[in-house]
């Protein structure tokens, strides 16, 4: 079978092509083409769902189970040797490449080094292009979001904004509300970092309308971002309402999933700083001590969390100084300095 133009996916040979051209395809051929088209559309629909859910292993297995026998070894080897995709043609090359690109976009979006971020953008953009050609557009917004995050981390804010705004447009066009929530969160965060607080407020309020009856992490993130935006704009009552809501939901989430403890520690630390700002010093102290305990527990598992410990110790020092508890302030400042020196020492030992 020779390669076909993307989006067409009908077997082509000289005889069949000529018959199609002159309208002489018999009923048996028509039925064959219809079955083939339906098969591929069904496969694409299943792949679209699996990729949207991040179930890439299942997507690969689905392709392997349905591919022609002569292509299965190539597709299987491509999982660890992507260059094998070059030996595949047509429809099966496209669907295999789509899963590879989507997986790379998703995996690399979690990294922070420059090389990974560049690769994330490349994989994401190509995944979007291929998804559009194959007619599986619901995959595209997630890939655009990954690219937007990577561009933002590379300080390419204008390009990140364009990518996220385009993702928003596509979501609205195809009615993909679940992905739209995360995109609004990312846009609000981006505008907040750029000092565009009114734009940040507009996007996060759009996010909260979607998050209203949800209890998942993305919804919690919306309320947390809203709290910071309202704080910056001096709308303290709304800020506190959203901090409380995020805290309540996140505590419930931590009961089910211990890995969310870091997020709870960060939220409590931010909430404590807000409480200090509005003069609720007792509540601020309580939250800072709880978040410190969380960070110290995480540090025992992985020293990279030491930076959170050091920063929280400093926040406690600031709180005690502001409430004129100077001896306690100095004690926590000293602990913070000691922890930062320990972190620096570790980094220097790695570099030597």
Protein topology:
Elements: H1 14-22, H2 27-52, H3 56-66, H4 72-78, H5 90-108, H6 114-134, H7 140-153, H8 157-174, H9 177-193, H10 197-211, H11 217-232, H12 236-256, H13 261-277, H14 281-301, H15 306-322, H16 326-351
Q: In this structure, how is the largest beta sheet organized?
A: none
Report the order of strands and helices: HHHHHHHHHHHHHHHH
- Class from secondary-structure proportions: mainly alpha
Indicate the mean pLDDT. Answer: 89
Estimate what percentage of residues fall within beta strands.
under 5%
Helix content: over 70%
Radius of gyration: 26 Å
Q: Report how far apart the termini are.
A: 57 Å
Form type: elongated
Q: What is the overall number of helices?
A: 16
Q: What low-confidence regions span 5 or more consecutive residues with pLDDT below 50?
A: 1-25
Compute the number of strand runs.
Answer: 0
Whole-number count of domains? 3
Short description:
The protein has helices spanning 14-22, 27-52, 56-66, 72-78, 90-108, 114-134, 140-153, 157-174, 177-193, 197-211, 217-232, 236-256, 261-277, 281-301, 306-322, 326-351. By secondary structure, it is mostly helical.
């Amino acid at each position: 079978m020779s390669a076909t133009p993307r989006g067409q996916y009908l077997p082509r040979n000289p005889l069949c092509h000529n018959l199609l051209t002159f309208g002489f395809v018999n009923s048996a051929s028509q039925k064959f083409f219809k079955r083939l088209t339906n098969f591929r559309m069904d496969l694409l629909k299943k792949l679209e769902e699996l990729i949207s859910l991040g179930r890439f292993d299942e997507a690969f297995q689905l392709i392997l189970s349905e591919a022609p026998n002569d292509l299965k070894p190539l597709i299987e080897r491509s999982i660890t040797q992507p260059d094998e995709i070059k030996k595949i043609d047509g429809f099966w090359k496209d669907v295999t490449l789509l899963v590879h690109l989507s997986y790379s976009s998703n995996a690399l979006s979690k990294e922070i080094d420059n090389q990974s971020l560049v690769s994330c953008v490349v994989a994401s953009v190509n995944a979007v292009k291929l998804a559009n050609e194959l007619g599986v557009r619901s995959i595209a917004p997630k890939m655009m979001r990954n690219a937007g995050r990577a561009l933002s981390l590379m300080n390419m804010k204008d390009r990140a904004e364009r990518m996220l705004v385009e993702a928003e447009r596509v979501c609205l066009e195809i009615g993909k509300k679940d992905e739209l929530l995360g995109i609004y969160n990312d846009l609000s965060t981006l505008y907040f970092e750029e000092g565009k607080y009114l734009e940040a407020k507009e996007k996060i309020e759009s996010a909260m309308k979607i998050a209203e009856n949800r209890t998942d992490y993305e919804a919690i993130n919306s309320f947390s971002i809203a709290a910071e935006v309202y704080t910056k704009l001096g709308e303290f009552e709304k800020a506190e309402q959203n901090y409380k809501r995020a805290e309540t939901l996140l505590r419930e989430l931590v009961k089910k999933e211990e890995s969310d403890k870091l997020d709870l520690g960060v939220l409590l630390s931010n909430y404590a700083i807000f409480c200090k700002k509005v003069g609720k010093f007792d509540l601020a102290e309580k939250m800072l001590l709880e978040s410190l305990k969380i960070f110290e527990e995480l540090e025992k598992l992985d020293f990279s969390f030491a930076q959170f410990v050091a920063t929280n110790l400093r926040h406690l020092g600031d709180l005690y100084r502001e409430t004129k508890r100077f001896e306690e302030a100095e004690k926590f400042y000293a602990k913070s300095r000691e922890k930062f020196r320990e972190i620096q020492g570790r980094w220097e030992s790695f570099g030597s």
